[in-house]
């Protein structure tokens, strides 16, 4: 039997499920630890315009954070590891054993094709790179070039050298893990030297046990997972959906099915979704305006976002300027259970200035001059470590 909710109820539940309502995290490092544990994964992205995406995800939930804090904790204190979870994510270290099943399988088809191409074109590359890391410790493509290891030409995704492709393949297979990053460049080491032995000792769930875990995790991460829609949302779970696993989990009480008034596609939610919603209703929504990361879990399911929230969002960084509707690095602005605006910004680290390049008020949203918008941007400035906001000439 499905739960039947209004759109308002669905929005409130989703806010609670993704950590944007109902829980007040401690500031700084302790808050990052708690929020990361609750989020179960944070998508990584290299663009550092207003901090990086992972920094932005945390700042909307945790006070006293700054760009760079999260990755320092992730790697230097082994808070988590990097791997695919729909997209490239930071994942809590305790979940590493579950992902070995994906690693051993070689990942999605495109990853297997890339490995096959490397093996065909450069059959000794993987072994040479693995041996170099084994002997010398964490290495990046820079050190491998200096050592003249696997420097044959490679035509493929993100790299032109066999060494880079070999690092990716060995990481994808779980033989190497990201040890740390320097200027966002990844350094790879043997997995047994990165992941704590107590974690490595746990057994690896496989088959349906693993798929059940991954589906529960995906639902936890987004709050409301559409039963249909984009294949990307169901990455690594397409076959499970085809085989009827989600409905079996609903029948067995491991997931809840939610129907939202006015929305044709139903959703999957955690089994205690009704209790979570009713608890969230007891907590008043605050008036704080939050800047939401472009790859925040709240925005992952774009079709559902449009239908449940009435908010259409496309990240336009990879579009040509004349093809953009808004701007280059535009962040949605959330107040309570509604999006009130979006702004395009750039942070000048030398001048410690946040430049508001553009602002667009949502229907029934808030104008740029509104006190809540200004307060939200002032708090955002604190996260950036800045001292000044440069407002548009016309506000």
TrEMBL record:
<dbReference type="Pfam" id="PF06224">
    <property type="entry name" value="AlkZ-like"/>
</dbReference>
<protein>
    <recommendedName>
        <fullName>Winged helix-turn-helix domain-containing protein</fullName>
    </recommendedName>
</protein>
<dbReference type="InterPro" id="IPR009351">
    <property type="entry name" value="AlkZ-like"/>
</dbReference>
């Amino acid at each position: 039997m499905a739960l039947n909710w209004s759109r308002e109820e669905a929005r409130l539940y989703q806010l609670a499920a993704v950590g944007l309502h109902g829980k007040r995290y401690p500031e700084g490092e302790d808050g990052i630890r708690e929020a990361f544990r609750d989020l179960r994964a944070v998508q990584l992205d290299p663009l550092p315009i207003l901090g990086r995406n992972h920094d932005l995800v945390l700042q909307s939930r945790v006070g006293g954070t700054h760009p760079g804090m999260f990755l320092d904790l992730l790697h230097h204190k082994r808070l988590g590891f990097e791997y695919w979870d729909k997209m490239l994510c930071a994942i809590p270290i305790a979940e590493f054993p579950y992902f070995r099943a994906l690693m051993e399988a070689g990942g999605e088809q495109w990853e297997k094709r890339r490995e096959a191409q490397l093996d065909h074109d450069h059959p000794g590359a993987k072994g040479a790179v693995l041996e170099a890391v084994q002997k010398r410790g964490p290495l990046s493509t820079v050190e491998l070039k200096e050592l003249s290891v696997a420097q044959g030409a490679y035509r493929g995704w993100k790299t032109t050298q066999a060494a880079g492709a070999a690092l990716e393949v060995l990481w994808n297979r779980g033989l190497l893990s990201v040890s740390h990053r320097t200027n966002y460049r990844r350094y790879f080491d043997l997995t047994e030297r990165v992941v704590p032995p107590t974690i490595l000792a746990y057994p690896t769930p496989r088959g349906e046990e693993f798929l059940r875990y991954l589906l529960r995790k995906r639902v936890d991460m987004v709050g409301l997972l559409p039963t249909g829609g984009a294949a990307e949302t169901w990455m690594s779970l397409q076959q499970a959906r085809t085989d009827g696993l989600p409905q079996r989990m609903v029948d067995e009480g491991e997931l809840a099915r939610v129907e939202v008034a006015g929305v044709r596609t139903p959703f999957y939610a955690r089994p205690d979704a009704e209790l979570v919603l009713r608890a969230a209703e007891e907590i008043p929504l605050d008036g704080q305006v939050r800047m939401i990361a472009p790859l925040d879990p709240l925005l992952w399911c774009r079709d559902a976002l449009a239908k449940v929230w009435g908010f259409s969002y496309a990240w336009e960084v990879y579009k040509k300027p004349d093809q953009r509707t808004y701007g280059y690095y535009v962040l949605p602005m959330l107040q309570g259970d509604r999006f009130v605006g979006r702004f395009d910004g750039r942070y000048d680290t030398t001048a410690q200035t946040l430049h508001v390049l553009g602002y667009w008020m949502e229907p029934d949203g808030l104008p740029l001059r509104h006190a809540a918008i200004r307060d939200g941007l002032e708090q955002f400035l604190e996260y950036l470590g800045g001292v000044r906001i440069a407002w548009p000439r016309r506000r």
